Amino acid sequence: MEHGAYEEAHSGGYEFTDEENEIIRATGSRVKIWGIFTLLAGILWAFGGIGVAISGSGAVTVISGLLYGLLALIPIFIGLNFRQAGTAFGFVVTTEGNDISHLMVAVSSLGKAFLIQVVLASIYLAVVILALVTAIFIPT
User: Fold this and answer.
1) How far apart are CA 64 and CA 81, in angstroms?
2) pTM
3) Does residue 75 form part of some domain?
């Protein structure tokens, strides 16, 4: 029986080696730091949108500011998912008996963060292609 399989059969869960834990710990720290930076950027973005909304005098300025602030939810949610993933990676290293379940939480959170980014990048690319096609085929 392999070492990992023996531990899994007798302790209720797989435990990573010290070398594996160090890789997971370092990755978790980086993911968590990136999540915090992204979250803070979203919060600053939200304050910028609120600032535009309350400093504007016209309806267009207020609506633009509110939409700007609303768009700040995107990096906020991305940041929260990255932070959650980093925390779960940390739990893989600091707890015993639940490495796989903590790892799955981390991977799931990363998946959510990347899904948001893939969807938004796809929308952005579609808008850019539409703008290019419009500029080429519709004369001004």
Assistant:
1) 27
2) 0.78
3) yes
